Amino acid sequence: MISMDKQDFVFSSMQLAEYLHSKGIHAHFSDVKNEQQPFYLLIPKYYIDLINWDDPEDPLKKMVVPNNLEDNVYDYELKDPIGDHTHELVPGIIHRYPDRCLLMLTNICAVHCRFCFRKNLLDSNNAHFEDAMNYIEGHTALREVILSGGDPFMLTDYFLKKIISLLEKLEHVKIIRFHTRTPAVYPKRVTQEFLASIRSDKQVIVVLHINHPREITTEFVNAVQRMKQAGIMLLSQTVLMKNINNSTATLGTLFSELTEIGVKPYYLHHLDPAAGTHHFRISVEEGKNIYQSLRGTISGHCIPEYVIDTPGGHGKIPVMWFERISEKEYQAVNFEGKIIQYTDNGE
């Protein structure tokens, strides 16, 4: 069910060191944590080649190479940081908002991002395909089905075509959306055969997870062009992280260059409180200042919505809606009219 050429990936620090050695690069990996940890290293060789291995602070390296700081799990950090489990009504379906649901059929990704908010999915994948599809068929208020995971682009062309054909038969489903990081880390996956498997008479939207301007390569741009030619609407989402992209210049460049190639910046995510990610976290106030500085620096159509996906499963709320009520506490009203409190654990 998974589309992956294992020759294109490394699965351990030893394999990573061997691959770099073959390129004449002798990198130091004393900061790599024990490989017995559940969230093991997984990096496409394509992405390894984008990293500046002479720079110990390289942001691309920090996003994908394990670090001992991940062992520092703070009390506020959660195994299920956005409350997915609360809304998992059948295995493989998360139904948080009235008119759309997540269809999560895989726990496989093209890369193991060290800031991942769904690390718990690696423990097991309990998705039940038939039950999930029956749920969508029986809930006619669903206008949009969002394939997530894991990464749906790692499913085989055959299986994706099967999913699309079943969704096309449901009159109430108008939009099919994919959330994926694959084109930014493994653009080779976006072949014409793949695109044929997700083509539909319904509107197809692909939300590309991309965090840094250096991920906008020739290969990525070519993959974007192929998706555009296939009639796909392209959006992006970005996670705001310390020492990765927490500057007006970095984000401004990223969002402007995405817009230039026909990708609309959609979401800028405040980092979710996933276990072992504190070293990536900035404060809400710093995030607000960066976000406000983008206005006027780049065109308005380049600016995404800056959101917090609130713990407990209360949904996404724009950061600018939050009112500061004490040094670390904020509150806002969510889409259901509930007052949601949020504790800022950034530094």
Keywords:
single chain, 347 residues, alpha/beta, TIM Barrel, 2 domains, 10-stranded mixed β-sheet, 3-stranded antiparallel β-sheet, 26% helix, globular
Please report the number of helical segments. Answer: 10
**CATH topology description of the largest domain:** TIM Barrel
Helix and strand content put the structural class at alpha/beta
At the fourth level of CATH, the homologous superfamily of the largest domain is: Aldolase class I
Mean pLDDT: 94
Q: How are strands sequenced across the largest beta sheet?
A: 3-4-5-6-7-8-9-10-11-12
CATH arch. level architecture of the largest domain: Alpha-Beta Barrel
**What is the ordering of alpha helices and beta strands?**
EHEHHEEEHEHEHHEHEHEHEEEEE
Please give the domain count: 2
What features would you describe in this structure?
This protein folds into two domains: 6-71, no CATH class; 85-343, TIM Barrel. 26% of the residues lie in helices and 21% in strands. It has ten helices and 15 strands. Strands 3-4-5-6-7-8-9-10-11-12 form a ten-stranded mixed sheet. It has a three-stranded antiparallel sheet with strand order 13-14-15, with no helix packed on it. It has a two-stranded antiparallel ribbon with strand order 1-2. Strand 13 and strand 14 (329-333) form a beta hairpin. Helix 5 (157-168) packs parallel to helix 7.
